Automatic annotation (TrEMBL):
Name by which UniProt lists this protein: S-adenosyl-L-methionine-dependent methyltransferase
Pfam family name, one: Methyltransf_23
Species the sequence originates in: Heliocybe sulcata
Source organism, top-level taxon: Eukaryota
InterPro entries membership: SAM-dependent_MTases_sf
Length: 281
């Protein structure tokens, strides 16, 4: 039997799990505590799924912000990173969202949250994947997706910097080769409409890295911690750089060091879209 290749280009291991946790904290702080699209009042929902949960970090915080009687399920293609020893979900299961969910889960949830699949879903798979996830919603239920653009924006706003363009070109080439969507945030509303969701609304947010953290009042320590957060995907990028024959490991390290110096002095932003859609009645 042919085994379908896992598209996901990021690692799944304890180091990445730690990075995902820290990333969740950074996102939540950047968004002023916002966990879902602001039109959603978590207190109104009773049956919630965190789809592609990773470590379950979102679910842990969403549980505190929701009605005490709400049930929370979590699913992911791999539960390797889910905190098996500290479970917060009522039911946890393995599910590849590019495949239909089992029939007994259809129409189960009144709210489904899903975040950061840009590294896992190919362009041609997105509308079907969203339609699969939407099948688990009750009629009238809400799907809230949060996705980011990988294009880096300099801290000062206008113009480009060679230190960011270097990374932009690398991720663009990598994402293109894997058929992934580089500026996923921009495309999510259309993918959701294509998947049959209605009343699609989006808000654009921005996540700071390096010195840009200080511009929104984050503590000094977040300058370095956010650089480490973004740098966490660097080993995979470095492998791509070396394997594709673009340059040597030493050249990569020198460019990475200059990139991090730039982040310390000026910083950068990444655009995020929080989008909500409704399953038709
Ligand atoms: C970048 S992590 C984000 C995790 C979590 N949503 C968060 O925001 O912290 C992406 C997650 O999606 C999962 N994933 C990737 N492709 C998937 C697929 N086809 N079906 C289900 N989960 C998938 C990965 O295993 C990983 O846990």
């Amino acid at each position: 039997m042919a085994v379908e290749k896992d598209v996901y280009v990021l690692p799944r291991n304890p180091t990445e799990a730690e990075r995902l946790h820290a990333q969740h904290e950074h996102y939540t702080r950047s968004f002023g505590g916002l966990l879902v699209h602001p039109s959603i009042d978590l207190q109104e929902y009773r049956s919630i799924l965190d789809c592609c949960t990773g470590t379950g970090a979102w679910l842990r915080d969403a549980r505190v912000a929701s009605h005490a009687g709400a049930t929370f399920d979590a699913c992911d293609q791999s539960l390797e990173q889910y905190e098996q020893n500290n479970p917060v979900a009522d039911q946890v299961y393995v599910q590849d969202i590019t495949k239909p969910f089992p029939a007994d889960l259809h129409g189960k949830y009144d709210l489904v949250h899903q975040r950061l699949l840009t590294a896992g879903i190919r362009r041609d798979q997105w509308p079907t994947a969203i339609a699969n996830v939407a099948q688990t919603l009750k009629p009238g239920g809400k799907l809230t997706l949060t996705e980011l653009n990988l294009e880096l924006i300099r801290g000062a706003g206008n113009g480009t910097s060679e230190h960011l363009e270097w990374k932009n070109e690398l991720t663009r080439a990598w994402w293109k080769k894997a058929n992934l969507v580089h500026n996923c945030a921009d495309h999510i509303p259309d993918f959701m409409r294509e998947a049959g969701l209605t009343d699609v609304q989006a808000i654009r947010l921005r996540v700071p890295y390096g010195a840009a953290c200080l511009l929104i009042g984050m503590p000094e320590v977040s300058v370095d911690s956010s650089i480490r957060l973004y740098g966490g995907v660097s080993p995979a990028l470095k492998r791509q750089w070396v394997e594709s024959g673009t340059g040597t490991a030493e050249e990569y390290d020198a460019k990475q060091a200059a990139h991090e110096e730039f982040l310390k002095s000026e910083g950068m932003w990444m655009d995020v879209n929080m989008v909500v859609g409704t399953k038709p009645l």
